[in-house]
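Students often ask what a holo structure prediction actually looks like on paper. The answer is less mysterious than it sounds. You provide the chain, you provide the ligand, and the output is a string of discrete structure tokens encoding the 3D arrangement of the protein together with flavin-adenine dinucleotide.
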Amino acid sequence: MPRPIEWQLGTVTGIQTETPTVRSFTLGLPEWLGHRAGQHVDIRLTAEDGYSVERSYSIASEPELAGQLEITVERIPNGEVSPFLHDVVVEGDRLEVRGPIGGYFVWETSLGGPLLLVAGGSGVVPLMAMLRHRARAGATIPTRLLFSSRGPDEIIYRDELDRLAGHGDGLEVAYTLTRQQPPGWTGYSRRIDDRMLDEVLRPLGSGARTYICGPTALVETAANALLRLGLPADRIRTERFGPTGT
Amino acid sequence: MTERFVTRGFVGRRTQPGEAGDLASRIPPGQYLTPDFPVLSAGPTPRTPLDKWTFAISGLVREPKQWTWDEFLALSARDWTVDISCVTKWTKLDMNWRGVSVDTLFENVELDPSAAFVIAWSDGGYTTNLPLGDVLNGQAFVAYEYDGAPLAPEHGGPARLVVPARYFWKSAKWIRGLRLQREDEPGFWESLGYHNRGDQWLEERYSGD
Ligand SMILES: Cc1cc2nc3c(=O)[nH]c(=O)nc-3n(C[C@H](O)[C@H](O)[C@H](O)COP(=O)(O)OP(=O)(O)OC[C@H]3O[C@@H](n4cnc5c(N)ncnc54)[C@H](O)[C@@H]3O)c2cc1C
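The corresponding structure tokens follow.
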């Protein structure tokens, strides 16, 4: 019998505002046994009378960070858990966490590359763990992130992504802004489509290991386009969270 | 954790407006109700043309059996209204499907008495394992319609297994066959840390639960 994945108490040691609707929470977890980039945790909230709810959140931090992990949460209006995390939780609070969970949507440097990451909105979170892991390991695996956001203020991890891409270690980041672009914007300005993926994929070649995460419509579009561009289905791993959007 | 931990400041949304209190008894532990039909899968959505599609029963049966799409549609089918729970925490009540009971499929073969487990396998390489007892007596069906329309590819069309009493990953999308075995064999998610059985009422989410 495998050992159960136990609930642990994590202490919120830091809260960072990423965008107007997205915050990251650092959790100190003394008993954390480590994770792989791309995995998630379950968070459980329990009220005085025992009523409780659980939700899954991808781990944003790299495995190399011992004893703590970071999650990044988008505030969903009228949601039960994400507004609580945004509006009520403060540093020093404790949260029940268990994980790591999920063994398929994971990447580590030993898997090699080239690596293509495609993200929509908060779907960037598990991919960020991969990029942080890649940087921490000093890897130079050719890697491209195509990241779709609505507007310039909604690009999660923008500064850090730009910094990572500036290291000249083989990482390139391409942004697309679907609704609103700032003056002088040089990135893409439309939803992800075949042509965009072709341009981003081309330098990596059709052997790229691909991880796509975001809303279902984006994941479907990107995965289908990449198949048409010649990527084998078994090179494409997908993760979706959020509603169907239809 | 033996003593119950209480999250500071958490009250919860409880039942959503307009939701009768008795629905609570239909929501397994740790789940929440959703009005959507979320999509989750590990890779791209496979698309098999219907003229190439077949459904096979193989393994520990006297004679393997295979149906084409047209033959499959000719099997006696019925409507099913069932509640579905996904391990990612959503539960959706009263989902309306049309499809063929696994019992009906098995009426067309002779099961070897040593058959004890079923491996459902799909386009794209997905597999999931179930004890034979979990799919008999009206507990599982192969659906090809949802809400009166052909099942959409992202939801597992043309046909998917539906096993309402287990977390939804056991309801293999894009199903192409059932293989009967003497021994159990963990499927895709079952090999990646998810529970081998997946009973949502016992909250069997992850291996060891
Ligand atoms: C494997 C996995 C990993 C995840 N990782 C992350 C992550 O890293 N960061 C993150 O923010 N979320 C992540 N999620 C989503 C998260 O688990 C919750 O679903 C989300 O926070 C909403 O919960 P809630 O209680 O606030 O809203 P709920 O009360 O559950 O939902 C309220 C309403 O909002 C809808 N809704 C749910 N999600 C979205 C959405 N994304 N956009 C718009 N509407 C929505 C629901 O369908 C519902 O109608 C992940 C989910 C899974 C399954």
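Residues 37 and 130 of chain A are 5 Å apart (CA to CA).
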